């Protein structure tokens, strides 16, 4: 196993992210799933310069992106978006994409169970065909019930992966599984060899080590099933706007170059634009919590 991180949680130049994570012992990055933001030739050079490899990318299912949408045109555009993410990861020599099938924040279905299952399976199969062409694996990620109604548990994600191909896998997220699974360790065991990625944040969605998750036991269970991929940092620190705030200086008060869509996506996760000092500290805490367990 090795330590990786997402970078969608804070709007900043990629070079800033890479310098920071290299210092703390991260080996790779699961880059934000926005292909328009990255020129792959320049990004490859930047990764090489800082000694960080691309582990993969996560699909940012915001706006109209939804593989389970009733509207066929919307599904087709969503499939093309996922294909573009796959192509970007392939060009960056990455290994996986984390696929969230439906729009994050959408909690009302578009159709019957049978209709939606057909829509999402057909769409994911088309994405998988492209994934094979570009040499990238797909890992279906379930989220908690407050972010999506469709895939909340590992067994559900595995059912979609099974419907697509034996070579399609699953990504589990420690934060989500501690909300949704009957037993988080049994959920990891059930996915087993089909576990392609594992995201990490504590039960309060701060950095690993700042909540109640038993990280030594989680890592031990991952080792038990033979998982040898990334532990991908994905804290999304909740903002406290009251006098009881434990981190009163966590929110950036100065103007930041961030798109309205990305800002809304972060705010919909209960977070905000974070200061560099706070964000750096969360990266450090994650590394100090997890690296001793995997080395």
From TrEMBL:
SUPFAM superfamilies xrefs: Xylose isomerase-like
Keywords from the UniProt entry: Isomerase
InterPro entries the record matches: IolE/XylAMocC-like (IPR050312), Xyl_isomerase-like_sf (IPR036237), Xyl_isomerase-like_TIM-brl (IPR013022)
GO molecular function, a single term: isomerase activity
Matches recorded under Pfam families: AP_endonuc_2
Domain Xylose isomerase-like TIM barrel: 19-242
Designated name of the protein: Sugar phosphate isomerase/epimerase
Organism of origin: Mesorhizobium australicum (strain HAMBI 3006 / LMG 24608 / WSM2073)
């Amino acid at each position: 196993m090795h330590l990786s991180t997402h970078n969608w949680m804070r709007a900043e130049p990629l070079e800033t992210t890479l310098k920071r994570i290299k210092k703390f012992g991260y080996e790779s990055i699961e880059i934000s799933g926005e292909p328009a933001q990255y020129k792959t030739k320049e990004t490859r050079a930047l990764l090489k310069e800082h000694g960080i490899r691309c582990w993969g990318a996560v699909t940012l299912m915001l706006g109209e992106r939804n593989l389970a949408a009733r509207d066929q045109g919307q599904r087709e555009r969503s499939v093309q978006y996922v294909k573009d993410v796959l192509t970007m990861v392939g060009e960056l020599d990455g290994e996986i994409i984390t696929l969230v099938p439906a729009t994050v924040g959408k909690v009302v279905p578009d159709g019957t169970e049978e209709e939606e299952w057909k829509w999402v399976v057909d769409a994911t199969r088309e994405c998988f065909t492209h994934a094979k062409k570009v040499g990238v694996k797909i890992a279906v990620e379930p989220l908690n019930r407050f972010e999506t109604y469709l895939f909340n548990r590992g067994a559900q994600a595995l059912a979609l992966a099974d419907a697509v191909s034996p070579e399609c896998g699953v990504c589990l997220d420690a934060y989500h599984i501690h909300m949704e699974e009957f037993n988080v360790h049994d959920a990891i065991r059930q996915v087993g060899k089909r576990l392609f990625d594992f995201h990490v944040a504590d039960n309060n969605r701060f950095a690993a080590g700042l909540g109640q998750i038993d990280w030594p036991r989680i890592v031990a269970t991952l080792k038990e099933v033979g998982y040898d991929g990334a532990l991908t940092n994905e804290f999304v620190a909740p903002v406290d706007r009251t006098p009881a705030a434990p981190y009163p200086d966590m929110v950036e008060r100065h103007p930041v170059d961030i798109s309205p869509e990305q800002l809304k996506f972060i705010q919909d996760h209960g977070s905000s634009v974070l200061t560099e000092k706070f964000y750096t500290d969360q990266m450090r805490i994650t590394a100090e919590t997890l690296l001793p367990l995997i080395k």
